[in-house]
Amino acid sequence: MIRAAWKEITLTPRFELGTSKGPINARTVWYLIAWNEDRPEVKGIGEAALFPGHSKEFPADVKTKLLELCLDTSNWAQRLNDDLVDVPSVRFAVEQCLKDLEASGSKILYPSAFTLGKQGIAINGLVWMGDKAMMKQRIREQVATGFTTVKMKIGAIGIEDELELLKTVRAEFSAQDITLRVDANGAFNARNAMNVLQRLADLQVESIEQPVAPGLYEVMAELCERSPIPIALDEDLIGLNTRDAKLDLLANVKPQHIVIKPSLVGGWAAAEEWIALAKARNIGWWITSALESSVGLNAVAQWTATLDVSVAQGLGTGSVYADNIPSPLLAAKGELRYRPEVDWDLSRLFA
């Protein structure tokens, strides 16, 4: 018989995380913890990390489902394809929890060269929004620490200043030296987006994520058709929890890429469905984290390592926290690596 409990933790970023939807100064996540009555020392752990302002879920939805799951553990596998479909972060937590139980609580969910410490995952550096001087410093830091793909958040301090920053990078590093990506988080609109896209193309920006707000499908479809640089859908994927809805988006908007956040789209199974649909339409894709703690990031990273990815993934967010769960994960020199010689410290989850 499986028993379960859940715990809420608030994480503190090392610095204010600037986005076009406002700054992030704290991040709350929830952990689902399960064990078998006959082996109570072996605990499976999964993380539910909804993202306020992006997720269609609310904290109350997450806590309600976690309470239900802990009261009745008899049908978790069935519920993955039932009521949990509409609470994607909790669905992913259940997937993780069950997988970790199968792995005797080892956190080795997908054994591979990555978990053996023999192979890293190429990741992009991430430059959060801030004032112009701060963002310039962060760009230099990312390049200096070995990142060859750098993604910059845009849409908060003014596009002219942001373009000037990108010009500064291009003056020092060619497109062969540094791949530049930008993430707008829906900051632009039908009137100004195309002008921004053209100016980004002039700076040899590789791609832009979500130039206009999610749900503007006709606008996005036109931009994807006319844009001089590839467009990657991100927030537009969130909340599309059925195969038909996913297919309808890809068939009608026809993006060049999609950005898949397992915590926000419903976990591994949902992410794999997105990948299959994208591949069938020659749409590129990459995986990114969603500011999870080390537990959720580990689940995303180990799965990603099995996908034979060739472009930089967005899995470098674990280092933003001053009080993250200590783990074997380390982002350095443009890679995320797993160090099997380093132990997990999960004491905070059981305090």
Short structural description:
This protein is of the alpha/beta class. Helix content is 34%, strand content 19%.
Task: Describe this entry's structure for a reader.
The chain has 351 residues and is an alpha/beta fold. The chain has two domains: 2-102, Enolase-like, domain 1 (2-Layer Sandwich); 121-350, Enolase-like C-terminal domain (TIM Barrel, Alpha-Beta Barrel). It is 34% helix and 19% strand. The protein has helices at 59-71, 76-79, 88-102, 132-144, 159-172, 193-202, 217-226, 243-253, 262-265, 267-280, 294-304; strands at 2-11, 27-36, 39-48, 121-122, 125-127, 149-153, 179-183, 207-209, 231-233, 257-260, 284-287, 329-332, 335-338. The strands form three sheets. The chain has a seven-stranded parallel beta sheet with strand order 5-6-7-8-9-10-11. β5 (125-127), α4 and β6 form a beta-alpha-beta unit.
Mean pLDDT reading: 94
CATH superfamily of the largest domain: Enolase-like C-terminal domain
**CATH-defined topology of the largest domain:** TIM Barrel
Q: Helix segment count?
A: 11
The Cα radius of gyration reads: 20 Å
Total individual domains: 2
Lateral strand order in the biggest sheet: 5-6-7-8-9-10-11
Overall morphology = globular
Compressed to H and E, one letter per element, the order equals EEEHHHEEHEHEHEHEHEHHEHEE
Structural class: alpha/beta
Relative strand content: 15-25%
Helix content: 25-40%
- What's the architecture of the largest domain, going by CATH? Alpha-Beta Barrel
Distance between the amino and carboxyl termini:
24 Å
Instruction: Tell me the total number of β-strands.
Output: 13
- Main beta sheet: strand number and arrangement? 7 strands, parallel
By CATH reckoning, the class of the largest domain would read Alpha Beta
Parts with pLDDT < 50 across at least 5 consecutive residues: none
